[in-house]
Design brief:
This protein has 20 helices and no strands. It has helices at residues 7-20, 33-47, 52-67, 70-74, 77-84, 89-97, 101-110, 113-118, 122-126, 130-141, 166-185, 190-197, 202-213, 220-232, 235-238, 240-255, 261-270, 273-286, 292-311, 341-345. The longest helix is centred in the middle third of the chain and has 20 residues, at 166-185. The chain is globular and about 70 Å long.
């Protein structure tokens, strides 16, 4: 359960315990199922702490401080490495203090050995005054687009796709790639489809087959775009997994219009640099041949895919809010479910798709 608990839920639970003590659990009646389960566990744990009031005040201060570094924590660490090359070892130590542990490991592993040896010990970085820390952090964050995150599920829309964590965004992009491929080849004969299935890993081949079987009618313009996207992809050079990601990246670029410039920049910095630069280039190229109707059609499909992935617990559960009457998942949940054990161990060279 802990892995699915976020800072927002921790702060809500801590505030409830701090303010209401034994009555803290009453707040649960105002939450949705996902938040209720997470906060109930937290409230029970926090209420049993010794010196509860002092501990909750400390915890709230820590969580607020953590949220102030949201932009750096959400940027792909490869971008951070690029900009840290221009900083002094002492500044690097202060910046590392504000990063998640997985980012710190990524940065240190890719830092030149001589520079890494000069970075102060983390204890020294924590001795820096809050005022200096704020100045250093603010200056360094100017390299990146600000990514404010309001975790209210009610506000989620296409413009909030940057709320997805980096790995969740990549998961969605690959699923968009499968969806795009299903649109492009859905009308092919079984023999031709089998040739495509055999290019993919077994689990992706099965998902693609189910995509095709459940495919709804699309506009002729979207069908033409999807087929052109597949023709332009170079699957032989990059391999099937990367091919799906590149197809999905292209399809996502088709969904972005002029008013999505801010979103494009934020998604770019969530991807590793080569993918980020490619995405921005694709967006610029697609805007030379705009089609607002198809772009809207694509955005609706992307939101339905996000809802289906959330139902399958492959991205944050809040994205299930898109599975309403007008934005229901395109396919059954089993399209997105994790492959069964026998699928994982079977050979991917000749998928059994019957």
């Amino acid at each position: 359960m802990e892995g699915r608990i976020d800072n927002r839920q921790r702060i809500v639970a801590a505030l409830a315990v701090l303010r209401d003590g034994d009555e803290a659990a009453d707040v649960l009646s105002y939450m949705d199922d996902h938040d209720r389960a997470a906060c109930a566990q937290l409230i029970e744990t926090y209420a049993e702490e010794a010196d509860c009031e002092h501990r909750m005040q400390q915890l709230i201060m820590q969580m607020v401080a953590s949220e102030r570094f949201t932009t750096l924590a959400e940027v792909h660490p490869a971008w951070i490495v690029e900009h840290l090359k221009e900083e002094s070892p002492r500044v690097i130590g202060i910046i590392l203090r504000s990063l998640p542990s997985k980012h710190v490991r990524f940065v240190l592993e890719r830092m030149p050995p001589m520079l890494r040896a000069q970075v102060p010990h983390m204890v020294e970085s924590f001795a820096v005054s809050p005022e200096v820390l704020e100045i250093v952090r603010s200056r360094f964050e100017r390299h990146f687009r600000s990514m404010p995150i309001n975790r209210s599920a009610e506000s989620l829309s296409f413009e909030q796709l940057y709320y997805l964590r980096g790995e969740e965004l990549e998961e969605l992009i690959r699923e968009i790639g499968l969806d795009e491929l299903s649109i492009a080849i859905g009308g092919l004969r079984e023999g031709s489809l089998a040739a495509v299935y055999n290019r993919l890993d077994l689990k992706d081949a099965k998902r693609l087959k189910r995509h095709i079987e459940g495919e709804e009618a699309v506009s002729p313009a979207l069908l033409r775009q999807a087929r052109m996207t597949i023709l332009e992809s170079d699957g032989r050079r990059v391999g099937p997994d990367r091919m799906l990601f590149q197809i999905g990246l292209t399809a996502l670029a088709y969904a972005c219009e002029l008013e999505h410039d801010e979103l494009v920049g934020m998604l770019q910095q969530k991807l590793e640099p080569s993918a980020g630069y490619r995405f921005k280039r694709l967006v610029d190229e697609r805007r030379l041949r705009p089609n607002a109707v198809v772009a809207q059609e694509r955005r609706e499909r992307i939101l339905r895919l996000a809802a289906a992935l959330a139902h399958a617990h492959r991205i944050d559960a809040h994205w299930t809010r898109f599975s309403s009457a007008d934005l229901s998942p395109i396919h059954d949940d089993d399209v997105f479910a994790s492959p069964r054990v026998e699928e994982e161990t079977a050979s991917s060279s000749s998928p059994q798709l019957a």
